[in-house]
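FORM 12-B: Structure-to-Sequence Request
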């Protein structure tokens, strides 16, 4: 998986590409950790448009991201969700935890 960050007007977008699974936890954490302490960032959007697979450990990583950002008063949303990724998030009821588009 590859992760790239872009920032604009208080919002950071974490764009993911490839497989989002246990083997990518370090890369994912490295991508979002600077955003937790960044005072200019008020909201984080995780862009899944380039992700073709995610597993249960990826769901856990998203929950950890939500907890860390929520702890400092920042919002997190998911976007670009489609296909198998959407199906997994729907089954896990993540629509109740995150705004998803």
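FORM 12-B RESPONSE
SEQUENCE OUT:
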């Amino acid at each position: 998986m590859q992760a790239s960050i872009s920032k604009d007007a208080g919002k950071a977008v974490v764009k993911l590409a490839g497989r989002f699974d246990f083997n990518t936890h370090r890369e994912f954490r490295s991508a979002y950790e600077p955003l937790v302490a960044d005072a200019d960032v008020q909201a984080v959007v995780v862009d899944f448009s380039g992700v073709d697979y995610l597993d249960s450990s990826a769901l856990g990583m998203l929950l950890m991201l939500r907890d860390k950002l929520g702890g400092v008063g920042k919002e997190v949303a998911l976007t670009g969700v489609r296909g198998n990724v959407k199906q997994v998030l729907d089954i896990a009821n993540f629509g109740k935890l995150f705004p998803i588009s």
